[in-house]
Prior knowledge:
By secondary structure, the chain is mainly beta. Helices cover 12% and strands 39% of the residues. The longest helix has 16 residues, at 60-75. It is globular.
Amino acid sequence: DSKLFCLSNNHVIANTNNAKSGDIILQPGSADGGILESDGFANLKEYSGIRFTSEESECELAHSVAKFCNTLAKMVGSATRLKPISVSIPYNLIDAALAQPYELKNVSTQMHEIGNITGISEVMLGMEINKVGRTTGLTKGIIQQIDVTAIVNYGPNQIAYFDNQILSGAMATGGDSGAVCIDSDNKIIGLL
Length: 192
């Protein structure tokens, strides 16, 4: 729509598939002291849903076996319990979301310590990249692999497979999610 949007991860601004369009986005985020009454700067526009690998099985035999094993475990004093699940492998390509800022004066196409974003670029093996993250700031890395399949753990019973991903050396930690990765010409090559 020829409008400016903020790009981040689904798990950052769409609460891992639990948000809805129009929800208020805070800057700083609530983990950094942001509060709803004064730090709202955008509304969630849309996100790509993350598909997870397992859900409770509908197989009666699996439930019967689990019930039997759980009864035995309880009798011998074990706290371990089985839960039958059905495993499928739906592949994701992105963990991404868009937010529409209230006012354009509150956003910028400049990256702190780097400068203006100049476009997008194709990724290549050995390419040097940069990102500016909330936790680790400006870090650099090298593209080590492309077309990677990765398994990401989002928490209990939330395992997601991602296909066609980019792998760099260590350049981030928790809290850096949503940072864009750029090449040496300040062109975006991916989303952390």
